[in-house]
Amino acid sequence: MAPRRRGRGAAPGEPELIAAVPVAATFVPGRSLAGVRLGQTAAAVRAHLGRDYGLCRGCATTTWYFTYRPFDDKGLGIELTRGRVSAVYTLWQPDGWQTPGGLTLGAPQAQIPHAIPVTCSGYEAFVSGTSVYYVVNGSLWGFGLVRRGRSPCR
Description:
This protein is mainly beta. It contains one helix and eleven strands, in the order βββαββββββββ. It has one domain (4-146): protein yfey like fold (Sandwich), CATH 2.60.460.
């Protein structure tokens, strides 16, 4: 991962927004991850999660990292294309994240709903529509949403 810098603070007279990466977030397949949806504007993401995020300097698209502490491995990655969310995914394996049906990170691969496997470097991505289930060593490692036709590999 490329070095990153933190997002800007509040402007004078603007209230400071605190990052709101949920301790236990929900992945609603095909709809949202931690309340973030594909196509959502950058401004809506900032309103939802705050302005305290890392910026990827070497990524092909604008990528924000919302983590629990600066440079923490766990949290939420958000890619923006033309100012809108084009991908959202977990970073590493945050504790307590799950689907409404109870599928939790760390679950055996066999519990993942039917999806098309895609081999990525060091892990597999199982894709169903815009939903992605990331698997490492036979266990569910992360959730994601990507636009149709885009690579799920991050």
